[in-house]
Every structure is written in structure tokens, then in C-alpha cells.
Amino acid sequence: MRSTPRALRVALAAVAAINLVSALIGMVGLTVGGGMGLPPEWLEGSVFHSYVWPGIILGIVVGGMQALALVAQFGRFALAWGLHAAAGLTMMIWIFVEIAVLLEWSPLHGIFFATSLVQTVLAVLALGARPRPLFARDIRDH
Questions:
Q1: What's the pLDDT tens digit per position in 38-72?
Q2: What is the 3-state secondary structure (H, E, C) of the chain?
Q3: CA gyration radius for the chain?
């Protein structure tokens, strides 16, 4: 983890923290907050009869993955960057499934899709999918 640039580490931690907080706020709002004002009709035709279970899934699965990634990063575990990639992908999948179930779109979907995409891309870069130096040129003839 020492070879990962500081800016990349800080950016990953910041994005994961934002994603974690948003998942926890969503969990609380959907479970004890009565669905955060979302119409119950949006759940018609789905397996859910209220927003409680989606809220629990959001907090435990999506938020849990973000928390695991942060714990691994601050604990300096080698698997931290892989967990960040998994956390970003988990959040993107959550958003796709949420839109598919609700058949509704909100600007928040776009915002959190963007933050999870940024997290995934940064994690892939932290895993080493970047040239060193960053703007190195391949001078071989093609």
C-alpha cells in the first residue's frame, strides 16, 4: 500500500466515507423514517411491501461494503483496494436494481452512481492499472 499515491488514498477514503454515510442515512430514512416520503405505490409489483427491507439491505450490504473497504484501508490491509472496487460495484448494482424495482429515476441515482463509479475507477488505479509515470509514452514501433 506504500506505493499508492497519497492523493489516491485520500480520494478513495473520502468517496467511500460519502458513500457509507449516504447508505446509512438511506437505511435510517427507509426503515424508521417511513420511507423518506417515497410513495408506497412505487413498490407495487415488487417483492417488497414496505421500504423497511430495502433500507436494511441498503445499510447492511451497501453500507457494510463501504465500511469494510474503509476498515481495510485504514488497517493497511493489502485487500483494501479490491474491497473499494467491490464496494463501488455493489453500490452501482444497488442503484440499477433500485431503478428496476421502482421504475423511477431520481437525480440522487445519478449522483450516487457517479460516486460509486469514481470509487471503482480509483480502486482499479490503486490496484495498479496505471502506467508509472502516469503519462508515460510507449515508444515501441507498432
A1: 999 999 999 999 999 999 999 999 999 999 999 99
A2: CCCCCHHHHHHHHHHHHHHHHHHHHHHHHHHCCCCCCCCHHHHCCCCCCCCHHHHHHHHHHHHHHHHHHHHHHHCCCCCHHHHHHHHHHHHHHHHHHHHHHHCCCCHHHHHHHHHHHHHHHHHHHHCCCCCCCCCCCCCCCC
A3: 18
